[in-house]
Amino acid sequence: MDDDKLSREISYALRHAPWKYSLELDEEGWASLEDLILALRITKRFGFITREDIQGMLDRSDKKRFEIKGKQIRALYGHSVHKKIRKEIATPPEFLYHGTTKDALASIFAEGLLPESRQYVHLSSDIEGAVAVGLRRDETPAVLRVRAREASEKDVYFYRGSEKTWLANHVPARYLEEIPGPFPGKNGENF
């Protein structure tokens, strides 16, 4: 079983297009694990998928994207479905980080961090995670430090996405600052 392909398929099903898999998400994003397995079995790639295959993929992954509880499964973050997935407010660490393109900085410092096509703004608990996210869109990304604790004490709600991912509805620009590099790039070279 290819864990990466399975993770991508489940991400698509639980984050972006549950209706294509005949799944119903509740207000916290939970869906029936049995229904997901049945929907995956219809595809040629996952015709013999089992709960153990999915659990094994979760156990081997260093990125905690999903959670299984009893007979339910959900994506922890990254939703783009229209129905808002409810999250529990949590107290963030003093700083969180966000990787982005250098081209996006002007609008971010004008409008703050917005969720764009997602339901929440995604933030990393460490600089390395933010660099990795930024590298997806830019060979020399910008990294922003978010004064998360200060923001949470004023007017911003934060939610835990996973061990290394935090979420927010919006982060005003007044809580952001760019961190100067160098950062390690895709080939291990600094930028």
Describe this structure in words.
With 191 residues, the chain is an alpha+beta fold. The chain folds into two domains: 3-75, Arc Repressor Mutant, subunit A; 96-179, Alpha-Beta Barrel (ADP-ribosylation fold), CATH 3.20.170. The chain is 29% helix and 18% strand. Helix 1 (3-16) packs across helix 3 (51-60). The model has no long low-confidence stretch (mean pLDDT 92).
Tally of strands: 9
What is the average per-residue confidence, as pLDDT, rounded to a whole number? 92
User: Major sheet: size, sense and barrel closure?
Assistant: 3 strands, antiparallel
Q: Under CATH, the topology of the largest domain is which? A: ADP-ribosylation fold
Choose one word for the global shape: globular
CATH class of the largest domain: Alpha Beta
**Count of DSSP H/I helices:** 6
Which consecutive residue ranges, at least 5 long each, have pLDDT under 50?
Answer: none
Terminal residue distance: 36 Å
Count of domains: 2
Strand order of the largest sheet: 1-3-2
Task: Please give the radius of gyration in angstroms.
Answer: 18 Å
| Percent range for β-strand residues | 15-25%
Helix percentage? 25-40%
Topology as a string of helices (H) and strands (E): HEHHEEEHEHEHEEE
